[in-house]
Amino acid sequence: MGAARLVWRLARLLWRLARWAGDDRGRAGGFVARTALRHRVEAAVLAALALLAAWGAVEATGPLELLLPIACLALCLGAWGSWQVAGRYSVGAAGERTVAKRLRVLECSGWLVLHDLERPRGGNVDHLAAGPGGAFTIETKTVRYTEAALDQALGHARWAEARLRLSVTPVLCLARRRDLPYEDRGVVVCGATELASFLARQPGPPADTEHIARRLRG
């Protein structure tokens, strides 16, 4: 019983540390990095519980002699699964940081570039860029995308249009690709290397960056 209480306290401590260390809202990849961290904490807690079950199985008798090894195996599988999910989220966070670096050239030209904008009903907009060429929401994927990703990109643009009361173009950027811009179901798709130059070439109309900053930061 004392060991179980210790594991529970450890789990609460790790969760609090995860919330504290993951408080990086507004930074590129912040939402995805926080999610990855929480999955790693979950994996650590499950692994600790698996060790506890394994320790108890050594001296178990009766039904527990069978149940504890099964519980240990299930907890190990759960920990492994959570760790794998965390790894995929970490790859996504790295992709968002790559895209953010590509957008810095626009910031130097007076564009407003925001990252990790949380939506009230869940999820986040990876990046929003606004300047002489207009306003754009940017959804980041690593090397490929699905129909669901296009829906996500369209949803971000619609949310931004409702919030900002202006026209917003949806963009889906592939962080590890060099694709020239093309359109798929009303979404502009391009590789990270082409993103900034594509946005800089757009004819506008120019976006009111002060208005957008007030609406999104207020």
Structural description of this entry:
The protein is an alpha/beta fold. It folds into 2 domains: 2-95; 99-217, Trna Endonuclease, Chain: A, domain 1. 60% of the residues lie in helices and 17% in strands. It has a 6-stranded mixed sheet with strand order 1-2-3-4-6-5, with helices on both faces. The protein starts with a helix and ends with a helix.
User: Beta-sheet strand percentage?
Assistant: 15-25%
CA gyration radius, whole angstroms: 22 Å
CA(first)-CA(last) distance: 49 Å
Write the CATH architecture name of the largest domain: 3-Layer(aba) Sandwich
CATH first level of the largest domain: which class?
Answer: Alpha Beta
Q: Give the tally of β-strands.
A: 6
Classify the secondary structure makeup into a structural class.
alpha/beta
Order of helices and strands: HHHEEEHEEEHH
Proportion of residues in helical segments? 55-70%
How are strands sequenced across the largest beta sheet? Answer: 1-2-3-4-6-5
Low-confidence sequence ranges: none
Q: What is the overall pLDDT average?
A: 87
Give the total of domains: 2
Number of DSSP helical runs: 6
